[in-house]
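Internal ticket #5521
Category: modeling
Description: The requester needs a full-assembly model to guide mutagenesis choices. All entity lines are attached below as received. Residue total reported by intake: 702.
Assigned to: D.W.
Attached entities:
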Amino acid sequence: MRRSIALFLGVFFLAGFAHQSSAQQYIAVGVPTSLKLIEGYEANKAAQLAVEEINAKGGVKVGKEKRLLRLEALDIRDGEPGVPVSEALLGIEKLILDKKIYAAVVGNFRSEALLAAMDIYSKYKIVNIGTIAMTPKFQEKVLSDKDKYKYSFRQCLDSKYLAGYIQGLMSHIGKQFGFKKVFIATQDVLWAAGTGQLMEKWFKANGWTVVDFERYPTGATDFSPGLMKAKAGGSQVILPIFDMPTSGILVKQWESMKIPALMTGFISPLMGSKGWSTFGSQIEGSINVPFELGNLPVRAYPPATRFYEDYKKRWKEELQSGHGVAPAYDAVYVLAAALEKAGTLDPDKVAAAVEATDMAGAVGRIKYDAGHQLVFGNDPKTSASAAVFQWRKGARVIVYPEAIADDQIQRPAWMK
Amino acid sequence: MLIYGLINSAVLALMALGFNLTFGISGVANFSYGAIYVVAGFVAWGLMEKLHAPHLLADAATIGLAAVFGFYLYKLVLKRIRGLVISEVIATFAVSLVMLELLRYIGFIGFRYSLPVFIDGSVEIFDAFVDIQRLLIIGFGIVVLFALYVFTHYTKMGLAFRGIAQEEHTSLSLGINPDRIAAWSMGIGSGLGAFAAVVILPLGTITVDSGYDVLINALSVCIVGGLGSTFGVIVASFIIGYAQTLTATYISSHYTMIVSLVAILFILAVRPSGLLGRQKELEERV
């Protein structure tokens, strides 16, 4: 009897030990984000794809040991209206304390939630690489106390870079067509209206005439009064900045009302490949700015196309977001490379390795500035990059920046 | 501006008619109305996209399904709490939350869900190009109003509807079953919500969040027009629709969102039963 009990206890402890060592093989990477919003949903899948690829090659070599990665996603809902920041922060702490995550990718949607989460990551020494929230205050906070916030990085472009791309695009349009009159239409939310204000200043400082600056409440379904103002004021370019689903109607009305102006800006619903099937040929000629390469295939930069195709193959559908998805994929690779380089799980050393990253990713060359913001430019061989495309007969033709452009911008048929 | 104001008014009227009909007959404020509108959009999308059903057939099936859903929602849930106003509101709002959040949970997110327009293209009217789908909305609005008038004045059930709306207890003494009529009003109201969905949603995309917007729009129009008054709904739709268009044209689109809220506040302060409502007319006079 005693022998049986001893045998049982022995097996029990061995099983427990075996389970513990199996659990230790994994490095848990958290994905605390808004999983029911398209960017969060697809960024999670992109991170999953990277984890699967890395694990298929045997995992990450940390010192002498090979470790597998495991993704722990949690819907913290901070991108949804009415969800308090505190709830999102609780979700992040839950991942850290319950799921014992070592690092985090993708992260918050709302900027205020990101800024608050940085303190939590700092408290628990969690290396985190965000791919969604865009406030430039992120870098300011990192630089305000570099030692405290050394674990936080951002892999997507911020609103200053976005404004920079739109400014570059407008200069390009100004040179190509000689246009100097613009109508600005934005969603009435902080990031979009803020970008619109930045652009308004820029236009005025660069000799453009701003015919009007209209801000539309979220959910607006009729843009005709604004479009009529644009037409009456002789606008040559309409700059839309929207991420609400009904904003596709703006482009449809632009076409049906034959407004003689280039529709050039950021409209989320028209970003993905399904924009054409959703909105039809009325979006022909409209120009859109996906935030990072890899969120659409880029002929001139094969790593972006490779990621796009791999995502499609793995998930049996093309990604539709213009923001945060390819960066999520790259973020996992950045983390894996840093772990291998540091050769240890010491978060201070891994954070230092992430800071020193210099590698090619789906978004372009990956390097961080002093504020831990991914550096963006116009050539993916030297920095990360955005891309500007024009819808033409159901295809997204890249027209800017020049280093990756497949063609020149064309005017819509009724402008010729 | 005149044309787009008219279209905006027709959209608001179509959104509110179903809600108003149900409230006018059964007294139930159906807070699941916006959810029914959105689910109807997704059902029509599924029928067309996945089962390749023809547009009109998919629309008819969607409207029918919504009507059946509304009918049984009353029979199975609301019948037991009828007359308990707070319970009705809580129950229908709970149904709304379950429907909308379930859609979100099972993955109806993103921008790819849309319905095709009935007729593509645009026409020029008084120097303004208008897409044909928007013009059709005006036509559909007129047809629905005419159909409702015929139904409530020349059919047995329609007359029973009016009887219940005017005096439920007297109608009961004439053999009209109020529960049956209330269930039908929920069914037809839900069907009208689905009709609005298949007509209006081709203008943009179908999203879960629009369920809340539709409910707010329907409530605004009904409160301003007078809960239960069809003519009030029409008048309120024109007032709010044109006020929104004028605001967008002469002030800024930024302020259109507060137009209906200001209208509600004004009406509640001046005439709480609405422009043409009779819910509290006696108390107001006293």
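Resolution: model delivered.
Comment from assignee: The two ends of chain B are 42 Å apart (CA to CA).
Ticket closed.
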